Amino acid sequence: IQAGRAGAKTLLLERSGQLGGMTTVGGVNYPGLFDAWGKQIIAGIGWELVKESVELDGGTLPNFAKVPARHWHNQVTINQFVYSILAEEKCVDAGVEIAYHEFIQGAKATSTGWEINCAGFGTNRLVHCKQIVDCTGGAEVVGLLGHVRMREEETQPGSYLFQLGGNYEIGRKQLHQIYVHGADSTNSRTVTEAKLAGRKLVLKKLRDAKGKKRLMHLQPEPGFRESYRIKGKTVISVQDYRSGRFFDDAVCYAFYPVDLHTKNGVKPEPLKPGTVPTIPLSALIPKGSRNIIVAGRSVSSDRLANSGLRVQAPCMAMGQAAACAAAIAAKSGTTPGEVPLGSLHALLKEHGAIVPSKRAS
Q1: I need a surface site. Which of 100, 258, 268, 272 has the fewest CB within 10 A?
Q2: Does pTM top 0.90 for this prediction?
Q3: How does pLDDT run across 67-117, given as a tens digit for each residue?
Q4: In this structure, are residues 29 and 175 in contact, taking their beta carbons and an 8 Å threshold?
Q5: What is the pLDDT of residue 124?
Q6: CA separation for the pair 251, 237 (Å, rounded)
Q7: How far apart are CA 43 and CA 301, in angstroms?
Q8: pLDDT computed for residue 264 by the predictor
Q9: What is the mean pLDDT of residues 276-281?
């Protein structure tokens, strides 16, 4: 949406059949966090989508002026189905071409950018473009191009979201969830394994209910928390995150506890009062690359920092920043990491984003 609104000719490849990723296909219909310490810190196009989804569904928004007792109190519950079709409408209105059920099979650099082989069922096409924004969650295109990616041997469990018994009030309640240990979003085979494992667990719960509860809702995809991360020009450390380090090339804020899920569950570690981390442009650029930028949970960071950076609101903010950088780079014939920071910040502000400013010490 941001790239299209900035005037860039934009093609969106989406391997599923709807927009929204984990928010919609995965059923994580409670994005956050857009606020910190009584103040909104993330706005822009992601917030526009969330806010309008809630309003269109007749829901209510949290009061960001009030610091909640628990961080999750200010996550915004949305109707995932409204969000998906609203995002689609906004893409079309911005002139974005949507290609559902397609993905990149191969890419090679050209004198003007990239030649990309895109595939889907019954579809094969070559696309020539100037810039790539990789929002796959696991830096799939970055890996395809041979750039360094990072991942530990053990990853956080995924979650399968469902509703057993009662009525699922869409846009008002969160779904039930069950851990899927070993869930891996690397490729179609590992995703299939995660689906089979998750659905088997849900079926067991249904059988254990012995007819006393009905299965009222089941998401088509598990929610994945962790996959590959890029090794960028900057690697955000958990010390950077916990201290609220202000990066000179910061493009957005992030706010969430350090939130590592393990086989034993999760014990969120809240940030100290007043701490608001920032995300630098250089953490979105794969080291040694040109004409490609990432956004989302594949941001260059260590594992503990990523456990806070990976949530939806910062991913939305990163996505908007990456699109601005790519659009400016395409227009000026440069690469995202060399875009003037002033121009990038100006474009972000023009489209409603909150740009980090250095706080007085």
Answers
A1: 272
A2: yes
A3: 999 999 999 999 999 999 999 999 999 999 999 999 999 999 999 999 999
A4: yes
A5: 96
A6: 17
A7: 23
A8: 87
A9: 98
Q: Look up residue 31 and give its two tokens.
A: 């994005």
DSSP one-letter string for 122-191: TEEEEEEES-EEE-SSS-HHHHHTT--EE--SS---EEEEEEESS---TTTSPPEEEEETT---SSHHHH
- Indicate whether 27 pLDDT > 50: yes
* Contact assessment for residue 289 and residue 142, using Cβ atoms and an 8 Å cutoff: yes
Q: String of b and e for 330-360 (b: at least 16 CB within 10 Å)?
A: beeebbbbebeeeebbebbeebebbbbeeee
For the CA atoms of 8, 11, 15, 20, the dihedral, rounded to the nearest 10 degrees, stands at 40
Q: How many residues does the chain have?
A: 361
Calculate the CA dihedral of residues 10, 13, 17, 21 and round it to 10 degrees.
-90
Torsion, Cα 97 317 282 261, to 10 degrees, reads -110
Within 10 A of 126 (CB to CB), how many other CB atoms are there?
9
And the tokens for 292?
A: 């490609």
| Per-residue model confidence (pLDDT) at position 359 | 64
CB-based contacts of 134: which residues, under 8 Å, 6+ apart?
140, 141, 142, 292, 293, 294, 295, 298
127 beta partners: 116
Kind and range of the H or E element at 277?
none
* Region of residue 335 (phi > 0: left; psi between -120 and 50: alpha; otherwise: beta): beta
pLDDT in tens, 255-275: 999 999 998 889 999 999 999
Question: Each residue of 226-257: pLDDT tens digit?
Answer: 999 999 999 999 999 999 999 999 999 999 99
Single-letter code of the amino acid located at 337: G
Nearest CA to 306 out of 351, 240, 353, 250 is that of 240
d(CA 315, CA 32): 10
What is the average pLDDT value for the chain, to the nearest integer? 96
